[in-house]
Amino acid sequence: MVKILFVCHGNICRSPMAEFVMKKLVNDAGYADDIEISSAAVSAEETGNDIYPPAQRKLREKAIPFTHRAARQFTRSDYTRYDYIVCMDRSNLRLLRYIVGEDAEKKVSLLMQWADKERDVADPWYTGNFEAAYRDVDEGCKAMLQRVISSTSICDSTE
Fold first, then answer.
1. pLDDT (tens place) for every residue of the chain, 159 residues total
2. 71-104: b or e for each residue (b if 16 or more CB lie within 10 Å)?
3. Which of 78, 108, 133, 141 has a CA-to-CA distance to 117 between 20 and 30 Å?
4. What is the dihedral of CA 59, 65, 70, 74, to 10 degrees?
């Protein structure tokens, strides 16, 4: 079982969008039993809140199924539990390092790095541009899934 955790500032916009986009991609590819996906925040300010309504609207518009959920903060034990910890931007990465310390196992990355781009996922919180955030999330998740599948033994488990 491969375990992926997406991380953003509050866990109400980008990381849950990535969680549910990736869940749909994984399900459509036939790997739902092989890959576990979740999301968390680097801050506690939105703890307990559901996905931000404009993010929910964007997921519905793109036919991405999602469930209601409660935002939660990343914990030190998440570092041990997950194989891939994927941040939406450099600020998330910096704050995550305060919780985790050194990334000794090289589990932490930026989502857009998976798509070979050295930039952050667009942040819709300040711009209201959920389409740009969705495009980045979709591109990053598709690239990540392709690379994760090709670099693990889960390919063999479905044959």
1. 999 999 999 999 999 999 999 999 999 999 999 999 999 999 999 999 999 999 999 999 999 999 999 999 999 999 999 999 999 999 999 999 999 999 999 999 999 999 999 999 999 998 999 999 999 999 999 999 999 999 876 655 444
2. bbbbeeebbeebebbbbbbeebbebbeeebeeee
3. 78
4. -80
Q: Which of 109, 110, 19, 23 is nearest to 72 (CA)?
A: 19
Report the catalytic residues: 8, 14, 123
pTM: 0.95
Gap between the Cα atoms of 159 and 152, Å rounded: 14
Give me the DSSP letters along the chain: -EEEEEEESSSSSHHHHHHHHHHHHHHHHT-TTTEEEEEEESSSTTTT----HHHHHHHHHTT---------B--HHHHHH-SEEEESSHHHHHHHHHHH-S-TT--EEEGGGGGT--SPPP-HHHH--HHHHHHHHHHHHHHHHHHHHHHSTHHHHT-
